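Reopening this ticket.

The earlier resolution said the output was attached, but the attachment link was broken on my side. Pasting everything inline this time so it's all in one place.
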Amino acid sequence: MILDAVGEAEGLETDFHGLQRAAGDSRLGPYSYRPIRIHRRPHASSAVRLLLAFDALILGQLQGLLPEPGILICGPTFRRVRVPLQTHLESLATVLTRLRIQINSVAEPQLMLKRHCDLCEFKELCRAKAIETDNLTLLRGLTSKEMARHYSKGIFTIKQLSYTFRARRPAKRQKQRFLNWTPLVGPPRLGFKM
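Inline output:
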């Protein structure tokens, strides 16, 4: 078992949480390694499984043999989960191609303020840029799905979004209350005769 190792292949680099020796011939000799990733939550998300697949991809390039099962150690009970990596490698390939396209492009990536921005060292810089461009991500209540819907309609700023506002229609009960109201007919009576 190797703990806390660094692997680099074809311009990609990863920090392995652990590597477990397994049977099978590779460039290294009559053995090969499989990646281990430790996750603090009891159930691993798809992002953690993609990270494990990324570890396996780099390890496969280093040893000349792609490791088939990866190992996740999850939660406070250190539950061991064997993850079949072949299914995750396909989605990892699409993510890596998108990242390579973004790295090679001259244009800046689209600014998105997220919940974890409070921890980032560039928080003030990104916020100032978002205020300058009147970015929709300044509205904390909008989900990414709603933002994508607005972007598809050509709405990119808060000012543009404000023009789409429509006041709510009154409720049906409220309409009935006004319809049943009868105004006074004629002048009010003062209580004396003429």
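Reporter confirms the inline version is readable. Residues 47 and 179 are 57 Å apart (CA to CA). The chain has six helices and five strands.
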